[in-house]
Write a structure and sequence with these properties.
CATH class of the largest domain: Alpha Beta
Number of domains: 3
Helix content: 40-55%
Number of helices: 16
CATH architecture of the largest domain: 3-Layer(aba) Sandwich
Number of strands: 15
CATH superfamily of the largest domain: HUPs
CATH topology of the largest domain: Rossmann fold
Radius of gyration: 26 Å
Strand content: 15-25%
RNA sequence: GGCUCGAUGGCAGAGUGGUGAUGCAGGGGACUGCAAAUCCCCGUACGUCGGUUCAAUUCCGGCUCGAGCCUCCA
């Protein structure tokens, strides 16, 4: 298996430190608002990676955190006049619902910052003790000059970074690049007791502490969105390496490319965010998931209505092949080698999907029952690795296009179909076609097959 | 301004130093009462200018355009 490592800038052979326990950490959401479709990309991509790894390794410990201490959360809570827990629990639930709809399996561990304060504090103490960090005016800062490898991950020169920095440098910093590990809270802000007074952790230390607590000093894979490379992952790397006597923190750094809207980054300031739940009103979650896997994970992906419609049509084809195979009992065949090879080549989902379509064509052409059984099993097993094609074809074709869409009920459809078959038997094709056109106008496509009429929602 | 990554047919999107993945759309045919679905056939795509090479879309360099980071951000 090969994975592209941001640190080296190239694809590398993947070999876990301990094949009996593969460890993976992915930065999860800050729960202060609804998740948008851009947030869904890493969740889906790394979900696929976890599935692929689990096929090969007996145990994959996948940790994806929930950031439930953050100034944006504080702002949201203050605005509503509620405790931060009200905000964080609400949006954690919503995040779970949204990802469930996209078929994203829960990670092995889903730690919250509020559950790891003791660990964070102990890590900060260790960093101060070994000279990597210092306390100043109620803050604790990590001294970037103490870590020679600073800038290696994001390929930045520290001096250039300082020169180009647009932020004002706080007077208590020893070096302009130093970043906060702990900061003081005012009495009206959420805070926790610490050796440096009542305060709260900085953004970067939480991931280092939780990764250490759940996965150990050295982890195999660290993932996240490309925007996290700097400063978040650069800082995590510095902290963890410094806290562990120079031991490697993450062996493979994986970063997914951005999702754009009309070729522009999705962001609240631009006003072009598209929430996952808004999309789900008009499209099945499975189609959203496939749309996210259409391009390679490291490439930028432009989101638009056509991409989503395209994904639906692809699923129509795939489910259509499974449906037309009828009731053949699937054999125990597994996904073919070419499909696995594509996914094990740095998660090349477009190439894997191409293999899946080849299987579908073969299934459509197959006439032998044993051959069909093998192909059905292969398609389902391959689909499972992508988190797709696990429903019955009948469910796929009869489901409405989203949580908000409407259309004639199944009872109505069945009644219309009965009338149409009667018209057809009487060779009244004009009436039969009228019924078909009428249903089509209402979003239901009727098809005649060798097994009689069948329908699907458009 | 500095850094990183891209530019493939009507659209989306892999890949490769020398036989044009895959899906959608489009054209032709088979099948069908007609459709739909399915199957078969059909496209001289690799931003631009140079270089290396017997041969470049694929390697190297310039240019143009695009995305991202340098500030919270998936």
């Amino acid at each position: 298996m090969q994975l592209h490592n941001t640190l080296s800038g190239r694809k590398e052979d993947f070999a876990p430190l301990n094949p009996e326990r593969v460890t993976m950490y992915v930065c999860g959401p800050t729960v202060y608002s609804f998740a948008h479709i851009g947030n869904a990309r890493p969740a889906v991509v790394f979900d696929v990676l976890a599935r692929v790894l689990r096929r090969r390794y007996p145990r994959v410990d996948y940790t994806r955190n929930i950031t439930d201490i953050d100034d944006k959360i504080n702002a949201a809570a203050a605005k509503e006049g509620v405790a931060i827990k009200v905000i964080t629990e609400r949006y954690t639930d919503i995040y779970h619902e949204d990802l469930d709809a996209l078929g994203v399996a829960r990670p092995t561990y889903e730690p919250k910052v509020t559950e790891h304060l003791a660990h964070i504090i102990s890590m900060v103490e260790r960093l101060i003790a070994n000279g990597s960090a210092y306390a100043a005016e109620g803050h604790v800062l990590f001294n970037v000059t103490s870590y020679a490898g600073y800038g290696e991950l994001s390929k930045r020169d520290r001096r250039e970074m300082i020169a180009g920095a647009r932020v004002e440098v706080a007077p208590y910093k020893k070096d302009p690049g130093d970043f906060v590990l702990w900061k003081p809270s005012t009495p009206d802000q959420p805070g926790w007791e610490s050796p440096w007074g009542r305060g709260r952790p900085g953004w970067h230390i939480e991931c280092s502490a939780m990764a250490e607590a759940l996965l150990g000093d050295t982890i195999d894979i660290h993932g996240g969105g490309h925007d996290l490379v700097f400063p978040h992952h650069e800082n995590e790397r510095a902290q963890s390496t410094a806290a562990h006597d120079g031991k490697t923190f993450a062996r493979y750094w994986l970063h997914n490319g951005f999702l754009t809207m009309d070729s522009e980054k999705m962001s609240k300031s631009v006003g072009n965010v598209l929430l996952i739940r808004e999309i789900l009103k008009a499209a099945p979650g499975e189609a959203v998931r496939l749309a996210l896997l259409t391009g390679h994970y490291r490439q930028p992906l432009d989101w638009n209505d056509e991409a989503l419609a395209d994904a639906r049509r692809k699923l129509d084809r795939l489910y259509g092949a499974l449906r037309d195979a009828g009731d053949v009992a699937a054999s125990d065949a597994k996904a073919p080698d070419a499909f696995i090879a594509a996914l094990e080549d740095d998660i090349n989902t477009p190439a894997a999907l191409a293999e899946l379509f080849e299987l579908a064509r073969a299934l459509n052409k197959a006439s032998d029952a044993a051959e069909k059984a093998t192909l059905v099993a292969q398609i389902k097993d391959a689909g499972a690795l992508l988190g797709l094609l696990q429903q019955n074809p009948g469910e796929w074709f009869s489901q409405s296009s989203g949580t908000a869409s409407e259309g004639p009920s199944e009872t109505e459809i069945e009644a219309a179909l009965a009338a149409r078959i009667a018209a057809k038997t009487a060779k009244d094709y004009k009436e039969a076609d009228r019924i078909r056109d009428d249903l089509k106008a209402r979003g239901v496509l009727v098809e005649d097959s060798k097994d009689g009429q069948r329908w699907r929602r458009l």
